[in-house]
Amino acid sequence: MHELRQPGTSYGPRPIAPDLEGDLLFLLDSSGSVSYYEFSRVKEFIADLLKLFAFGPHDVQTGVVHISTTPTMEFPFDRYLSTGAVQHAIRSIQQVMGDTNTGKALSFAKDMLFSGKAGARADVPKVMVWVTDGFSTDDISQPMQLLKDMGVTVFIVSTGRGNYLELSAAASQPPEKHLHFVDVDDLTIITKDLRDSIAAKRLRATDISTSSFRLIWPKFLTRETGYYVLEYAPTGDPRRKLTKQLTGDHTSFLVSNLVPQTTYEVALIPESNERYMPPQTTRVTTLEGKTKKGGGDSSPSRSWSSFPKPISPARVLISDSRPHSIRVSWAPTPDSVSAYQVLYGPLPGNAVKLVEVDGSLNSTILDDLTANTTYLVTVSAIYKSGKEKALSAKACTAEGEEVSMPCTGTKFGDKGGRVVLTN
């Protein structure tokens, strides 16, 4: 999915969630109860929170509403459609001052989230992040409940003391995942968790292979309250659409018998017998069907969350560490293994590359690496029966000289320049 860009400076690394779609609204306390210093720190927090999202009419759109005596819209959802433009707009926000009439702002936000005039889109997830110092001069319970009844996921970040019972009732459930109390100087502590939580409130794909992927989603329904209709088809070819009906207690489904290196449009439609729920949509691209035999090109970078997590203890060896390459070895190599998948990416980070190795081999060289960098390496054994087992290890590239260099880390033992993963 390509981001539609407007003129503006690009901030930060490449977005990590290119398949995320939704309208994300920030309800920003801009009243006189917030100091200039606090307001500037909150703006930095929002800018940092947003820098890893892709923006566009088929990606994330974001808008801002001020809480004041009278609520005002800083900008609508469809005004800024690139990372650079969004970053510049956030950093340019000026405080309005006035009273803290949060209830009025919530009613205004409800209209904005579902208004085409504000650039809101039908049938996409709606998320609101309310940043507050913990105080309001009017009632918030009724307008907040209306928002949640309409399917809006509400996150609350309180930089003041506030009333825990009131705010925990206002946030989406459970409050431990949707409510954060944090000092304004420590907002960076919650940035990643909040970003991940926002991204998690959606349909998404994991365990992506050449011919399948697993869809997972939050628990929207139960078996008693409705069912799901799942639709998927190759991009640009709706005639090949397949439809499946799933009971309401499903929160995942394995989509199989797919074509390698093909992008699929996926829609999950919750059919609730209690209230309307918007469809959840995503795009998923299956992996390339080539098998690497001890060397060759790797697949394009993907997110760690797109691949299966290690589920079985075993042994992996890291050796011959050089500035731009390392050798990865593993044991054993039973006849029942048809292939190995080696995933690797720098730490910290979320970009991952995939190498496939023939099942008769037990090592490969990973090259084109960055010097003096720690990598997380995961080796998955693909058995002929279809089962998978995986293991992980950390590896460090050398600083700049062509010498072997052991890597250190938790759960790893240094044995003569090799790293052994043990349980």
UniProtKB/TrEMBL annotation:
Localisation: Secreted, Extracellular space, Extracellular matrix, Basement membrane
SUPFAM superfamilies: Fibronectin type III, vWA-like
Domain Fibronectin type-III: 199-289, 312-401
Keyword set includes Flavoprotein: no
Keywords from the UniProt entry: Basement membrane, Disulfide bond, Extracellular matrix, Glycoprotein, Phosphoprotein, Repeat, Secreted, Signal
Domain VWFA: 23-198
InterPro entries in the cross-refs: ECM_Assembly_Org, FN3_dom, FN3_sf, Ig-like_fold, VWF_A, vWFA_dom_sf
KW Disulfide bond (keyword) present: yes
Gene Ontology CC terms, in alphabetical order: basement membrane
Gene3D superfamilies registered for this protein in UniProt: Immunoglobulins, von Willebrand factor, type A domain
Annotated region (Disordered), positions in chain: 284-308
UniProt function note: Promotes matrix assembly. Involved in the organization of skeletal muscles and in the formation of neuromuscular junctions.
PANTHER family for the chain: COLLAGEN ALPHA, VON WILLEBRAND FACTOR A DOMAIN-CONTAINING PROTEIN 1
Subunit structure, as described in the record: Homodimer or homomultimer; disulfide-linked. Interacts with HSPG2.
Protein name (Swiss-Prot/TrEMBL): von Willebrand factor A domain-containing protein 1
UniProt source species: Podarcis muralis (Wall lizard)
Organism ancestry: Eukaryota, Metazoa, Chordata, Craniata, Vertebrata
